[in-house]
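Section 3.1: Structural characterization of target chains.
Under the original work plan, the team committed to producing a structural model for every single-chain target entering the pipeline before any wet-lab resources were allocated. The record below documents one such target. The sequence was received from the expression subgroup and is listed exactly as submitted; it comprises 352 residues.
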Amino acid sequence: MAGLPPSEDRLLMTENPNYLAVNDHPRRSMTDTPVIAVQDLKRRYGDFEAVRGVSFSIDTGEVFGFLGPNGAGKTTTIRTVLNLIRPTSGKPFVFGIEASADPVAIHKRIGYIPGEFTLYDRLTGGQTLDYFANLRGGVDKAYQKELIERFDIDPSRRYKEYSKGNKQKIGLVIALQHRPDLLLLDEPTSGLDPLIQQEFYGVIRDAKAEGRTVFLSSHILSEVEKTCDRVAIIREGVLARVDRTRRVANAKGTAPPTATTEATPLGTRGAITPSPAPAARSIASSPPTRISRCDRVATRTKRARMRRARTTDQAIAELAHELGFTDQAHFTRAFRRRFGLPPGRFRKSAPV
């Protein structure tokens, strides 16, 4: 097994501009080995260079964000760290082991959720979780049950019957249930409704409190702000910045556009709410700016006559789209109940 010599790590940190100074790693002594250390990583696909000279390190117990737009090189970097693909040049180290030297030893200690995945359609959610738990030699059933309850999963349904958001929840529990030392999460909140996103942030805080390490990729700045100690910003395969999250957040007004600052991705990335109740809770727990937006739409819709129901539903559908919900029928019923609007059939023809 090949480890990263402490002297080499110190040289990398002091000479590579993509690293923070040693003083910005308060938990690290000069002899500590980082959980992840990436050195001048490059990955080519033919003539296209997806990752160009990326270098960073992640300490034990740190939540590290990897921020960038789609296609920036986040997933390629993560897969290289996991030895799922080989780098063109450069070396990733995990737990002090070169990724290609002993991947089995590394994978025993990690939990991973890819950006896109598929599981077994005929198994129920509970059977799927147990299957992966058995592959790990068993897990704490009480903790598994806690995760199922926190993410509001119905484990009796078959995987093929789940919505996009519920499939994502199953993937999250698979990655979390064995309490790994290192979590690698590639856009983990994709498809989750706002309420479950908040629950996920709580799970990450709990993992950090237990001393575990999290490597989280995202294209949403506000998500990184809520969860991460430090963040690396990547664009077109090149690290633009590695810094404390608060510094990046304070400078986001003047920073170049590398990722969206929306609280929830829109369009196809919205969640399918299983019932009106989560939508209603999400409306009630929305930030003041969103509640204000809801109030304005509610006022406008109250003034509309029933003969103008299409206009009413258009306004609600636009709001559902803005909040990241793709099942506007459920959202409309919750919205009408929340603001006391008269009942009416949702017009599916209304544009979103």
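Residues 194-209 form the longest helix (16 residues).
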